């Protein structure tokens, strides 16, 4: 099988995701991460569309990239316009990239209903734009937009458009499933037909509107495509693009294509989470290969089998992609998961399935989960529970008491928390305001502890969830509070349950801080 080049369009297609807005600095950080991973081409944006992208192309020239080439993106010339005078084409030249990717129409429907020009004028738009960019010394990739829909509508015309780009000098023709509606069997059949006619490299660009973007991309490679376009974490308009993370995992581990090195494959999970953080998007827990739940096991039967042979319930070794196996402890998982969890945490508890201590922990977990705790969603609290049960650590501080007051000031509600804690027999009494009672408590507790534990300045709360249990109990119902915290290296969940939302939140908050301090001791 031929070498396959990876083309990332997170900074352009991915930026069209609802809720994502990259600054120039965000884009530069992502470029550096993708370059380090070994991605071959990085599409930086559309220089003719906005000043931010032009600023990016100016700034990216200063980066010393080791692996990747940056591409600018734009369209063919406008209808009935001299290509040398087209503002979009001039913007592509001014961006200064060696590689330029342009898109043109392959679907006669678009030519007739959107451009509203004769079909032959669209052919000229493609040919003249590619030729002009080639005359300027550029390497041109041609994205055949809506190719598969165009082929199904008018195959002769769709093929004629890509021949126009090839004959004008395009180095690679990329077949685009822009609407994301093509079934894999259809896509493979059409791709093979085109490959049989074209004598130049062909790539694939799939959207995920039918949930098939990754499958279609991998199948296109098997059919002979040499370039795969996609976005990290599948970001993109509507349902997103092909997730380049999953594409890499499948090409490398299933098809044995060395699209990136083995060493960099182990950094795939970290890169995915890094880009999610910059994008300010919570990563999907069940994202293949790199998600937090991708190699997570809960059922007791599964865990028992995993202990004997991981292949029983894992299609690849999680360490190959930089992820890790997680075994959830709950009322469903039984003693096996407790033994493995204790082993993973290096608790040195000397537990066996038959040991009374193991049964004690299982009974405690089942009791707490009956009360509303949900430890599979809060592994930070679970680790603390196990260590407390076997007296494996000393508490970092003792609570003397706290008080929270909420009052109306001006046009808004303001909460103030007063707290007393003792650290190493030293008493701290502090107060702090917050946007709500929990925020005020968090601020006050950090203020009290920061002098003793400066590392707390590195962490912050990133998510806060409240669920009412036993809704029929009304205002007397228990609530479950889950808090997600993170620092520069990690994130973790902790939990609290009580009839009082402040108490439940406080318990989760204390676990969050103690977990951070305990983690830093390892």
Give a quick precis of the structure:
Helix content is 40%, strand content 20%. With 522 residues, the chain is of the alpha/beta class.
Give your account of this protein's structure:
The structure is a single chain. The mean pLDDT is 90. The relative contact order is 0.07. The protein has 522 residues and is of the alpha/beta class. It folds into three domains: 5-260, TIM Barrel (Alpha-Beta Barrel); 355-394 and 458-522, Double Stranded RNA Binding Domain (2-Layer Sandwich); 397-452, Double Stranded RNA Binding Domain (2-Layer Sandwich), CATH 3.30.160. The protein is elongated, with a radius of gyration of 28 Å. The protein has helices spanning 24-37, 51-60, 87-95, 108-115, 119-135, 147-153, 155-167, 184-197, 213-223, 244-253, 262-265, 268-279, 300-308, 334-344, 356-371, 379-389, 437-449, 501-521; strands spanning 5-8, 41-45, 69-75, 99-105, 139-145, 172-177, 202-206, 227-230, 296-297, 326-327, 398-409, 412-423, 426-434, 460-468, 479-486, 491-498. The strands form four sheets. An eight-stranded parallel beta barrel has the order 1-2-3-4-5-6-7-8, surrounded by nine helices. Strands 11-12-13 form a three-stranded antiparallel sheet, with helices on one face.
